[in-house]
Amino acid sequence: MSLDTTPSAVAAAPVIPKVRRGLPALLIGNPTFAFGVLILAVVFLLAITAGWLFPGDPQDMVGMPLLWPFQDMAYPLGTDSLGRDVASGLVYGARVSLIIGFSAAAIGLAIGTLVGAIGGYYGGIFDNILVRFTELFQTVPPFLLAVVIVAIGEPSLSVMAIAIGIASWPQIARLVRAQFRSLKEQDFVMAARGLGYSNARIIFIEILPNALPPVLVTASVMVAGAILTETGLSFLNMGDPNLVSWGSMIGEGRDQLRTAWFLTALPGLATAITVLALNLIGDGLNEVFNPRMRQR
Predict the structure, then answer these.
(1) 227 assigned to some structural domain
(2) Coil, helix or strand for 204?
């Protein structure tokens, strides 16, 4: 059997064939990744079924104030100082955290990938301008930048997602730029240029798929960071006042921290578990995509 060494075959050849071959089996067989996905799936399930589990508005006052967990089985996780069901708030808060987390990460990925791909592929003056632009954004702490953007706009899910996404894209831009600079001189890219492919096709069809593994690992961390940022903004009363979030629950429960610590502990625990799940997913992806980690 003879190997196909035509330019088209070389252009279609992936840079990391060992990672792509059997990837689902590698991910499923990785205990770190599987455990993280299991935890995150439970959070997703609770968020999706929130309306069925707890009909009505989670901000409604439904019981006696400051009921402790399991004191009244109608409210298994207790009530806050206004008589609102804590369990209902936790489940509906999962919706807010997941929506903002994944939306903000998608925005940051889109901006960072575009900036990093253009700078890394073209180089020269484009690269210099985009690198300086990225460094300009990195001079401002991401959380502070998100606070400023939310303060300028109206506190809502969309504004918070855009603010967190804008504050988080430089990390992805630097990573994608480094990947493109290392891949653009590979044989399969040279073959694609020889076949007359357009720059857009080379960037998005030939190089970008081969640059995705480290980007996917970083994306999971971005989602976790976006959830933590949203929690911080809501804690500072900069979230949507019409929605219950884990950050707002922590902020409202801090006044009862000594007498009813569960009001801050439960939403804090929910945030920690979700962020832990995303970090486990990132670690699992890194173990699968990183050849050295796979060998270990």
Answers:
(1) yes
(2) helix
In a domain, 230, yes or no: yes
Tally of structural domains, the chain: 1
Residue 176 is assigned to a structural domain of this protein: yes
Cβ contact 271:98 at 8 Å? no
> For residue 219, which amino acid is it?
A
Q: How many other C-beta atoms lie within 10 A of the C-beta of residue 119?
A: 24
Going by C-alpha positions, the residue among 99, 83, 102, 104 that lies closest to residue 50 is: 99
Helix ranges (H only) for the chain are: 7-12, 17-20, 23-28, 31-48, 50-53, 86-122, 124-138, 142-152, 157-183, 187-194, 199-201, 208-235, 246-253, 262-289, 291-295
- The answer to whether residue 67 sits within a structural domain is no
Rg (CA), the chain: 23
Nearest alpha carbon to residue 79 among 232, 245, 271, 249: 249
Are the beta carbons of 104 and 282 closer than 8 angstroms?
no
Q: Specify the CATH number for the domain of residue 142.
A: 1.10.3720.10
Q: What is the reported pTM? A: 0.86
pLDDT digits (tens, 9 = 90+) for 35-90: 999 999 999 999 999 999 999 899 999 989 999 999 988 899 999 999 999 999 99
Q: What is the domain extent for residue 157?
A: 23-50+84-295
From CA 48, how far away is CA 230, in angstroms rounded? 19
